[in-house]
Design brief:
The chain is elongated. About 30% of the residues lie in helices and about 25% in strands. It folds into two domains: about 60 residues, Beta Barrel (Ribosomal Protein L25, Chain P); about 160 residues, 3-Layer(aba) Sandwich (Alpha/beta knot). Strand 5, helix 2 and strand 6 form a beta-alpha-beta unit. It is an alpha/beta fold. The longest helix has 22 residues.
Length: about 240
């Protein structure tokens, strides 16, 4: 959505529902953001806005002053995750958006329980993007993480170097010789973090990732769930535990 001070705009349906749930009335103020963070004026930051009209299913607002407020983490963290089953992927996307993930790549691997393609995959991606937007609205983040199309691990590994050129690539692994995350990632450059679904990646998949430039890392002595491990890594890297 293009946001320009002085313009009158209709909010998207999801944002309009949010305003209605909050029971805002004409004259009340709110903050708007477009979530792009692409460097264009107004793409990262917030606009003050005033409710002009409350319809039965739509909300019209007048855009006010812009404030260049950035709430991004000090480094870009890209999560490539073997999709956990059931609603756990929803939870992972929601929390990753709150914690500051730059992007999320849903993957299908040998041990994946959740396998989707075609129209079903498109619906899931649309749903997860909505989850990410809602999470950003709730926590005050004004850049929405990119949710990529579902891919197979084998296909994704062919182009994994394009995710964060020049950055670190790490693989969560239980294999002997895996190093602590804090000993593997340093500085403030981008990081691509790869983790498996329930049961983890197979030995052959891990070997392929390592051959592709991923360093095997461990988060400690406990075995974390498929939806917990990437969030633990994200917290460590964005909140300073491994910087």
């Amino acid at each position: 959505m293009a946001l320009v001070p002085g313009a009158t705009v209709l909010l998207p349906p999801a944002a309009a529902r949010h305003v209605q749930v909050l029971r805002l009335q004409p004259g009340d103020t709110l903050s708007l953001f477009n979530g792009l963070g692409d460097g264009r004026p107004g793409s990262e930051g917030e606009f003050e806005a005033t409710v002009a009209r409350m319809g039965r299913s739509d909300v019209e607002v007048v855009v006010g002053a812009y404030t260049a407020t950035a709430r991004e983490a000090g480094r870009a963290i890209h999560l490539a995750v073997g999709m956990p089953a059931n609603e756990r992927m929803d939870w992972l996307v929601e929390k990753a958006a709150e914690l500051g993930a730059a992007s999320i790549q849903p993957l299908m691997s040998e041990r994946s329980v959740l396998r989707i393609k075609g129209e079903r995959a498109d619906k899931k991606i649309s749903h997860w993007r909505g989850v990410a937007v809602a999470a950003c609205e709730q926590c005050g983040r004004n850049r929405v993480p990119l949710i990529h199309e579902v891919a197979s691990l084998a296909d994704w590994l062919k182009d994994a170097g394009d995710t964060a050129p020049g950055g670190s690539r790490v693989l969560l692994s239980l294999r002997e010789g895996s190093r602590p995350l804090a000993d593997t990632v340093s500085g403030s450059g981008p990081v691509t973090f790869l983790s498996g679904p329930e049961g983890g990646l197979s030995p052959a998949e891990e070997a392929a990732a390592i051959a592709g430039g991923f360093a095997a890392v461990t988060l400690g002595s406990r075995v974390l769930r498929a939806e917990t491990a990437p969030l633990a890594c994200l917290s460590l890297l964005t909140l300073g535990g491994a910087a």
